[in-house]
Design a protein that fits this description.
Number of domains: 1
Structural class: mainly alpha
Largest sheet: 2 strands, antiparallel
Helix content: over 70%
Radius of gyration: 22 Å
Strand order of the largest sheet: 1-4
CATH class: Mainly Alpha
Oligomer: single chain
Number of strands: 4
Length: 363
């Protein structure tokens, strides 16, 4: 038997350290929190908060595949999220009955449309670079919003499409109590989405550590050099776009399974795209795990900052100026965002990784 090479020995040692590191135990802790939430905090508001963090974590990671790992800035990424939402909503809501078959067909149709659209966007837009590509994708995304709004006979327009889920995913479904908690259709939907999101995230982790992912990072760092050593960068960038968009489409279908409706504002709107961009910035580009920090930050701000005025009125009933300030919760959110960007210039996860890397090098 041949002796392992120094490189193989180093990789084995790195793998052993990986499963004993603080980061590994933090990931396990996060998974446990998501797993036990329905039993510890069974209220719908808490489940909704945690599940949206879960979905947007993976959505931000899929966008990070394009921006952070390939260097492609796309303002049309949420369009594919909307394709998944509308496809599932139409198949089990407007044009079909709630059934497992229609649910699966809705996802398959969405993936087919997304793959075709992603290829089309790549061939039309990758001929231009940087901000010009971003503007083209923004125009395509705006066009999708206009279509969804104006074709009201097909998409439901601004009213959207309301759906009811089949079988075990139906809200009224109940199989009884487990550990004192009713296992309803909501809980089963929560765990189904959790498992799919976890699988998608692990798939993306494997994707970025594959040889294909390494080439995409080389393209991000220096595209002319990647071309000079023989890589056809157009093909790799197209693969990155298709992969990220397919993940976003599946998440759109999962999202509509949870909220029960789809309209242009909730699944296609520019505010969603801006939220995704903010989540990437807050979490850290090129980290993948930064999506969790960014999604938690923004979802916490959106869910709890509007309640600050009520809280301050109860604690300080006579502080009218403070009440007025707390009413402008977007101002507080803006200040928090500036502080995060100031103290974590590479995002929360990106800055933490840089700090740990410096300590490791110094040690």
């Amino acid at each position: 038997m041949t002796e392992p090479t120094p490189v193989q020995i180093a990789r084995l040692e790195e793998r052993r350290k990986r499963y004993r590191s603080v980061g590994f135990f933090l990931k396990i802790a996060v998974l446990i929190v998501f797993l036990i939430t329905p039993f510890v905090f069974p209220s719908f508001k808490t489940l909704d908060f945690m599940l949206k963090i879960m979905i947007f974590t993976v959505l931000v990671a899929s966008f990070d595949i394009l921006l952070g790992y390939t260097g492609i800035l796309s303002f049309g990424h949420v369009m594919f999220f909307g394709i998944g939402s509308y496809s599932v909503a139409m198949l089990i809501g407007k044009y079909g009955s709630p059934s497992y078959f229609n649910l699966i067909i809705g996802f398959l149709i969405a993936l087919g449309i997304t793959f075709t659209m992603a290829l089309l966007v790549s061939f039309l837009s990758l001929r231009v670079r940087a901000i010009f590509f971003a503007m083209v994708t923004l125009a395509i995304g705006e066009f999708a919003i206009i279509l969804a709004t104006k074709l009201s006979g097909f998409t439901g327009g601004e009213d959207g499409i309301t759906i009811s889920m089949p079988g075990i995913f139906k809200v009224s479904f109940n199989i009884g109590k487990v550990l004192g908690v009713d296992i309803t259709g909501r809980v089963l939907t929560y765990y189904t989405i959790f498992l799919v999101c976890l699988g998608l995230f692990l798939l993306m982790v494997r994707f970025i550590h594959s040889p294909l992912g390494r080439v995409m990072q080389a393209i991000r760092d220096n595209e002319p050099r990647a071309e000079a050593i023989g890589y056809q960068t157009f093909i790799y960038k197209t693969a990155s776009i298709c992969f990220g968009c397919l993940v976003a489409t599946i998440l759109g279908g999962l999202y509509v399974m949870w909220v029960g409706y789809a309209n242009p504002e909730s699944v296609l709107g520019i505010p969603i795209m801006l939220d995704v961009l903010l989540m990437v910035i807050v979490g850290g580009m090129g980290t993948l795990y930064g999506g969790l920090a960014g999604a938690a930050f923004l979802k916490f701000a959106h869910n709890f900052l509007p309640d600050l005025q009520k809280f301050t009125k109860n604690i300080f009933p006579d502080a009218l100026m403070l009440h007025a300030v707390m009413e402008r919760w977007l101002l507080i959110f803006g200040i928090l965002f500036i502080l995060v960007v100031f103290f974590f210039p590479k995002g929360i996860i990106g800055s933490a990784q840089e700090y740990l890397s410096r300590r490791k090098t110094a040690g």
